[in-house]
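Argininosuccinate synthase, pasting as requested.
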Amino acid sequence: MSERVVLAYSGGLDTSVGIGWLKDATGKEVVALAVDVGQGGENMDDIRQRALDCGAVESIVIDAKDEFADDFLMPALKANALYQKRYPLVSALSRPVISRHLALTAKALGADSVAHGCTGKGNDQVRFEAAVAALAPELTSIAPVRDLALTRDKAIIYAEEHNLPIRQSAASPYSIDKNVWGRAVETGFLEDPWNAPIEELYEYTSDPEAGLGADEVIITFEAGIPVAIDGVSMSALAVVQHMNALAGKHGVGRIDIVEDRLVGIKSREVYEAPGAMALIAAHEELESLTVERDLGRYKRGVEAEWSNLVYDGLWYSGLKRSLDAFIDDTQRYVSGEIRMTLHGGRAVPTGRKSEQSLYDFSLATYDTGDTFDQSLAKGFIDLWSLPSKISARRDAKQG
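Structure tokens follow.
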């Protein structure tokens, strides 16, 4: 059997042309692999057939939506994962699940290499190849756009010369990536960071200034995982989908950010992640009720490091696995309900309750029934400030 390469296939121009381009450049048979992570759009069967029509010897479609939600989005939610404190890792979270299936498929078919459609300027090339290296170090990674000089103009000419079944409608000025966790938009006029986003950029969210009345929602968590909306039990995937619709209606989760890419350049990105941002806000609020002070403070530093690792393509690294173990332990008591109001682009917690709550009314109240012994406060403050007092005396002596 000829050597094979498994290509992460999206159905778009670059990966469709990449099938023949890879075969011509390497002599390998190309197997196309399309992974459904909730990106919507075209029917996956149509994408599968297009790969065959473009010359793939085999075309495989995998429905990974539940796997994506359970194994990747829920760990991100428990970590309150926000890169640069704002970006919920929309694209970064989908790459390790696609890479997992690339490696598994390559092993199952006896392929010696995998391929992807990334350029040499972005983060995704690193995410795919670092993940595959961790999962199947014996495989070689190939990037036709980066390694085999497949530019967009060459791709269009190649598609026309080979009569490939690729619709060449009016070219979008934007580069778009999407999945069930959110949607990313870049390039075009957005490359000037002074230019404001326009309404036509958005798909997952409605205009937050539309003047809709507020919606209220109650999210139930068990050990850090959302398990029900308004009392109705749901899978992790269904929770995300439901919150996308509900929060998206109010324009929640629009993000405009200048982002520090792994490859060392800054990039202007526009994201919309309504379900992700609403769920993170709810989860953080429940943690404030159920996680002790020092553990919560420390976890916030771990969350930043976890987000950096995932952004940088190190989902399968040893440090990431160890941080997962810590984060999972912090979630033992993160169970309860959060009530939120969704309105005007905001998801605002308005109520919280939990059987694991650390909030003690009798200690917190200033009214009758207060059990907090205020007489202990003076001695506590004296001891707490003692190091500062001693060092201040030394500083005074030194002038």
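Note for the archive: The longest helix spans residues 90-109.
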